[in-house]
Amino acid sequence: MSVWEETLRSRLARLEQEGRLRSLVPVARAVYPVLERDGRSLINFSSNNYLGLANHPELMEAARKGAQRGAGATASRLIVGHDEETERLEQEIAAFKGTEAALVFGSGYTANMGVLSALLQRGDAVFSDKWNHASIVDGIRLSGATLFRYRHLDMDHLEAQLRLAEKKGIRRKLIVTDTVFSMDGDVARLHDLISLKERYDAALMVDEAHGGGVFGPYGEGVAHHMGLAGKVDLHMGTFSKAFGVVGAYVAGNRTWISYLVNTCRPFIYTTALPPAVIEMIRTSLRLVREAGSRRIALHRKAARFRNRLKALGLNVGPSETQIIPLIVGDVHATVKLSQSLMENGVLAVPIRPPTVPEGTARLRFSLMATHTEEHLETAIDAIERAVRTEGVTIHD
Ligand code: PMP
Q: pLDDT by residue (tens digit) across 70-90?
């Protein structure tokens, strides 16, 4: 056996021992509220298709129309991969977000990773919520900037760190946060973040991956919902969740965007998005703006689902959004609960440490505007039964 084969096998064995070995399971119809897995129909609480747009006929039609221009973009943006439709899309994103300019990226992961590693340099300070997404963490790591990781939503801790950075004479400071956190479904304290950034002369970047499409009068995101969009220096968001497509944007003033065009390596050294995707994103921007009634339905269903779980004495953590954790605590009990729900036709995947803090293993329910009341009632009944029969004690 080669040294690599031996090493990889032993690393995999370690993951298995720790109960962390993952494998791929084919799923069909994941764009719908009921999907198919292992030949079974399961109510789907695990997709990010919050508004139910991922199977919208206008998006399929947009893909067909876009593909007429060619299957691929053939080159990176700065070579010949930039066309009028992409230019128009970026103007539409900037208008939607109320900024001077915007850039599209192939994914939210590359947007965060690329933007943070381009903006920040050694000697700069970055302040990052402990539960920010992995793509933010990785971008910071690549940048070489000094990381101040503040306790989740803890504004006093952040302020202490800002003061420390100031004392050290660090001039450029950037605060970065998810707006809706994907594990607890809770929301960043944007008012406080803005007053701190103003007081300490820092900049603020927000990741609207889970807030975009869902919050704001036209689905612009949490910053618009709170009336604070103009105070954010850099907005990032994905087209892969509520927008139902793939890709991401970064929006801000012209200087920041021009700087990224010139320095952001995952923007410069990758092939541009294909015309079919550009067309789908343009259509999804319009569909999201017009999706007021889907947003209302989603928030109403999420509030009801949360309240029903709470009424059963279950712990839904600090969730205020369409992402609703059912915090169990013990890893094995969480996995058992997930299996028991699956046997009863409900798919909510277990999320375990180190993705979440030790002792807070949970099932995560992501709601969709297209879940029916019947889907939700069936799920709540199944949860009640599974908790009772599995004898799960819920961590508080
Ligand atoms: N930011 C956050 C907060 C996310 O949850 C995700 C996706 N899980 C991303 C960025 C990455 O987005 P994408 O899936 O489009 O790469």
A: 999 999 999 999 999 999 999
